Amino acid sequence: MILDSKKKINKINIPIYIFIFFSVGLLLYTHYKSEFIYNSSRLNQYLIYYLFSICSIICFSFLLFFNSEIKKNFLLFIITIIMLVYVFEGIVRVFFKDSENLIEKNKKIRENRASSILDKYGIEIDTRSPVQVKKDLKKDGIDVSLLITPYRMIETEGIKHYDSKLNKIFPLAGLSKKFYVGGAESGEYKFYTTDRYGFNNLDDDWDKEIFITLIGDSFTHGGYLDFANNFTGVLKKISTKPVLALGQPNNGPLLELATLKEYAKKVNPSIILWMYYEGNDLIEIIDEKKSITLNKYFSENYSQNLINKQSLIDRSYSKFVEEKISKLDQKNNLENDQSDTSVLSVIKLQKIRRILFTKLFDKIRDRENTKSTQILSDVLVEAKRETDLLESKLYFVYLPSASRFLDGNKNVLKENDYFRKEVIDIVDELDIGFIDIYEELFKYHENPLSFYHFSMYSHYNKKAVEEISQEIYKQILNN
């Protein structure tokens, strides 16, 4: 009887050990994904899984010390909960099935925007994706490149070298002297040819005495307008002096600091314009701060020496883009075939996790954004130190977002007036020249949305760039 009782107890312990085994496996897998795959860049997203697996290990380990009746009841409760969770996952998949993959969703967004513009203005808009534009032009024998921005390389800490002993490099621009597809916000796609370092400039200007250098994101990059109508082209025309733009789409302040340190010293400009965009700079800086490589740019003497590695960047970057496009096509085909039927996605409860954790992660990110002004301050301290070494005059140009003037588009930035006062206080405390485009041109304008393409959420249109450039140049002359 005693032996039978022990066997019975041991059998009850088997499922408990199985739960402990899977909990340990989840903990190890979570740590592997968080630390080795994403280099702690997604730690906040994985905290919930750390917590769940650790609590599960502790709970089931303690359960081993209770009597068999308590063990049976607890295991029955847990198994029932698990069954209900998977039933709910099945219900969610049936009634909330994704009819489109990400590519199709983006296509629908472009089509809806085009339909709205056609109804309101009678203008037809090109709804193709940049990838499709590249494929279409290739049929006509035209080779056009696609830009994968530095911001998209944060998770992987740059790209690998394909023909070098070095492991990785973190490029801050595109391919050199290549024909690129830009944006289509004005209705048709714009194209541009990059300079010797992969920026959107006239290449010969690198050999001249530069008057103004712009540091910034897509507004500075200007690939959504013809060159003559973007900030670089207009400031060149107004000043009649050489102007260079060191900007890339999606850049935040830390990527901009890295770009300043890698390239501005080559030309030693008289004026450096730090083009700050209130719409997302304080969001992007949170992700940038997670990068090991980008954090090194807070050090005075750190450099990847990118300006002398362009041929290596070109070779590695070309292969990197080809692989990205190939994977995108494979993923698109895979999602079309099995986006909602993958057994692994069911086992991983992807639908429920998306519903339960998306808002949680958004709240965590919002809390981080409230601290991003301190990171911006650290960036500007180093930017000021660098420009002082170059003996250049630094101006902080405050650019307002269309979301400020549109209903909806609410986020933590808009709810806090884009932390505008905090940002201005930082610039003032560091004694950096301040050009407030919002105050000078937008705040009291009768229709500030007229500065944006089709009065929608977008970059600035040709008219806005002209007036902003005039204001910038006027303030530079007055100082």
What brief labels describe this structure?
9 strands, 5-stranded parallel β-sheet, two-stranded antiparallel sheet, alpha/beta, 479 residues, Rossmann fold
Low-confidence stretches: 1-5, 333-341
Structural class: alpha/beta
Pattern of helices and strands: HHHHHEEEEEHHEHEHHHHHHEHHEHH
What would the CATH topology of the largest domain be?
Rossmann fold
User: What amount of the residues lies in strands?
Assistant: 5-15%
Main beta-sheet annotation: 5 strands, parallel
The end-to-end distance, rounded to whole angstroms, is 97 Å
Count of helical regions: 18
Q: Please tally the β strands and state the result.
A: 9
Question: What do the pLDDT scores average to?
Answer: 87
| Inertia-based shape | globular
The oligomeric state of the chains shown is single chain
CATH class of the largest domain: Alpha Beta
For the record, the count of structural domains works out to 2
Q: Percent of residues in helical segments?
A: 55-70%
CATH architecture of the largest domain: 3-Layer(aba) Sandwich
Q: In short, what is this structure?
A:
With 479 residues, the protein is of the alpha/beta class. Helix 14 (372-390) packs parallel to helix 16 (420-429). 55% of the residues lie in helices and 8% in strands.
Structure description:
This protein is of the alpha/beta class. The protein folds into 2 domains: 2-95, no CATH class; 130-327 and 358-478, 3-Layer(aba) Sandwich (Rossmann fold). Helix content is 55%, strand content 8%. It contains 18 helices and 9 strands. The protein has helices at residues 2-37, 43-63, 68-95, 102-121, 130-139, 218-221, 231-239, 253-267, 281-288, 292-295, 310-338, 343-347, 350-369, 372-390, 412-415, 420-429, 437-442, 462-478; strands at residues 159-160, 168-169, 179-181, 191-193, 212-216, 243-247, 271-277, 393-399, 433-436. The strands form 3 sheets. A 5-stranded parallel β-sheet has the order 6-5-7-8-9, with helices on both faces. A hairpin with a 7-residue loop joins strand 1 and strand 2 (168-169). Helix 8 (253-267) runs parallel beside helix 14 (372-390). The chain starts with a helix and ends with a helix.
